[in-house]
Design brief:
Elements: H1 21-40, H2 43-62, E1 64-65, E2 68-69, H3 70-82, H4 119-133, H5 135-142
Antiparallel strand pairs: 1-2
Length: about 140
């Protein structure tokens, strides 16, 4: 059975004409706030705030920084301004139990773990380990030609 794999999943759908849902919400919110200021403030008080609100809403809707939406830049700016910027490193003391005569166990001289399912890789790895453990004997075998 064949299935159609979705493509271009990063691209948002255009719902309101040439605008996506997020863009429409940003623009509609800016226009709504501007209309509210226009209705409740005199003309000499509403002009500058309306321009700021419309500019901010248009930036949220359309402006991209490094190919990412402006809202991510605003979020990063808020996180930067609200969080502390002084980082002090404190070394943590680690209590490491040193081996004593009572709890000392005999460790094997070489630990060779089981590798993957490929026998060829296992064989090559085993040969590399044996050569690393006994470099004199493996070199002597290769130079006897």
């Amino acid at each position: 059975m064949r299935y159609q794999v979705p493509q271009f999943i990063e691209v948002e759908d255009k719902i309101f004409g040439p605008l996506t849902l997020k863009q429409f919400i940003y623009v509609a919110g800016g226009i709504g706030a501007s209309i509210a200021l226009y209705l409740f403030l005199p003309w000499y008080l509403f002009t500058v705030p309306i321009l700021v609100i419309l500019g901010f809403s248009l930036a949220l809707a359309f402006y991209k920084i490094n190919n990412r939406p402006f809202i991510f830049a605003m979020e990063s700016w808020f996180n930067y301004t609200l969080h502390p910027k002084l980082y002090i490193w404190h070394k943590e003391e680690q209590n490491v139990a040193l081996p004593t005569a009572e709890n000392e166990t005999e460790m094997p001289t070489s630990f060779i773990p089981k590798l993957g399912d490929s026998k060829l890789k296992d064989l090559a790895w085993t040969l590399d380990v044996r050569q690393a453990e006994n470099p004199v004997t493996s070199d002597a075998r290769t130079n006897t030609k």
